Amino acid sequence: MKYDCIIIGSGPAGLSAALNLKLHNKEFLWFGQKDMSRKVRISEKIANYPGVPMVTGEELNGIFLKQAEEMGIEINDQIVTQVSFTGKGFMALAGNDIFESKAMILATGAANAKGFPGEDELLGRGVSYCATCDGFLYKGKTVAAFIGDKNYEHEVNYLAGLASRVYYFKGFKDEASEMPENVELQDRPIKEIKGGLKVGSLIRTDGTEIPVDGVFILRNSVAPANLLHGLELDGPHIKVDRQCRTNIKGCFACGDCTGRPYQITKAVGEGNVAAHEVLDYLAELDKE
Amino acid sequence: MKYDCIIIGSGPAGLSAALNLKLHNKEFLWFGQKDMSRKVRISEKIANYPGVPMVTGEELNGIFLKQAEEMGIEINDQIVTQVSFTGKGFMALAGNDIFESKAMILATGAANAKGFPGEDELLGRGVSYCATCDGFLYKGKTVAAFIGDKNYEHEVNYLAGLASRVYYFKGFKDEASEMPENVELQDRPIKEIKGGLKVGSLIRTDGTEIPVDGVFILRNSVAPANLLHGLELDGPHIKVDRQCRTNIKGCFACGDCTGRPYQITKAVGEGNVAAHEVLDYLAELDKE
Lengths: 288, 288
Description:
By secondary structure, chain A is α/β, with parallel strands linked by helices. Helix content of chain A is 25%, strand content 27%. Chain A is built from eight helices and 16 strands. The first copy, chain A, has helices at 12-23, 38-41, 57-70, 119-122, 131-134, 154-160, 224-227, 264-287; strands at residues 2-8, 28-31, 80-85, 90-94, 97-106, 127-128, 142-147, 165-170, 183-186, 190-195, 199-204, 209-211, 214-218, 233-234, 237-238, 251-253. In chain A, the strands form four sheets. In chain A, strands 1, 2, 3, 4, 5 and 16 form a six-stranded mixed beta sheet that branches. In chain A, helix 1 (12-23) packs parallel to helix 8 (264-287). The longest helix of chain A has 24 residues, at 264-287. The two termini of chain A are 20 Å apart. The A-B interface holds A 12, 15-16, 19-20, 23, 47-54, 60, 63-64, 66-67, 70-71, 240-242, 259-261, 263, 265-273, 276 and B 12, 15-16, 19-20, 23, 47-54, 60, 63-64, 66-67, 70-71, 240-242, 259-261, 263, 265-273, 276.
């Protein structure tokens, strides 16, 4: 089936867009994290959100979650690793599944807009955002895995079952879980990914180099430029106009990914605008 | 004293801006209605405001009011009838008082963007937005008063004490109060204000004409183009960029007055953006 819209990102902007599409009975998929927004959750005190005075991030995130649930809106927690514009709509790749839609709303946040040096260049040539998709290519080989969120640790286990050796780079604060014997937890972060036609090695921040055949990068979101080829950026942000339109027809962006201020209030406002633009866009398509 | 900022408009956009300026300890004045937003209040059910699920307009307006109160933010309910850009800041005229500020946020709403035909042309030449300012000019003369909100009915009484005759045009739904003998309540609305060098007459919607010397128009907000000379518009809306900047340095606009969608969520988002731009603007001024 072809959905009316796909929303990528479960922060305040994505939620705001989802509420509006739901109220207008649109068929849409919403990709994100089941517990919604880590960035909201870790906010200590929010004093400037109109309508919810003096609230902790944890509380506000809980209110958002409950509101989505009560509206019957579900979050699909597969990670979308690639989006393609087909000229008549969009295809989103999540794990090994492909989803199609008429319109697209990117609400991917700002935190992970920047990748490692070498990441962009070697994407698809040894750098992968999806262990279950590409892991089989590395049977008996040496790989590195960067895990940006503890939720994705199971991907390291998956890789350990295929590769002979897995260098595990941890990008979150919690302790790492116990791992199979062929997994080596690294204490020095990745500085750069090196290679020519294919990935060859990793440089760590202390300057030491380790040879690897592949690098798996599991973040909560993929940098916009890598997510959707041809998307126009403005520095690290997605370039949009006042209607939240990107340079790609039918593709809208909202929230932190479009730029400062990185504020919940700004994000919900843009999510609302993006959803209304999608409604107009779908109405136009229907006329054609 | 010169304020850091003046906010005009007490809808969701104005509130959002006010919350942020308050949190940053700025000295500002907030003009609007004591009961905040009529447009929010009359909304039957709001289902798409993130963080406050399924709420009536009356309830949400109450939450907004309480939040402002708890933050120690007060609404000044004088009507600002004119704003001037002095090159180094702004002067706002409200009643007979003048207030000065470094920056300006217009959050005046969309409802009253359109005036009567002839209103713009004859403003200051018989058309006035302020009875207490200009009423004395019409001693013993015949005037008309358009009252857009029952809150301003006392202005009719004031005019009746000066003018020989007052044609009272009612622009709100409630019943009119009892009036002095020289006030004539009109049942046919104003179609057009006519005049040459000065106001000469009013045309009512049935085509009948009544001679008047002056026309007092009391709305909750003044159309942006009449409020601030030189402000660039885009149709009936104030033209702004993604940072809510208008064409006038230090003047920002947010909410319904900047265009569709006319949504509370969009309005609070823009109020947040406008306030953050004001903070940046004030910081720049301090460097000079």
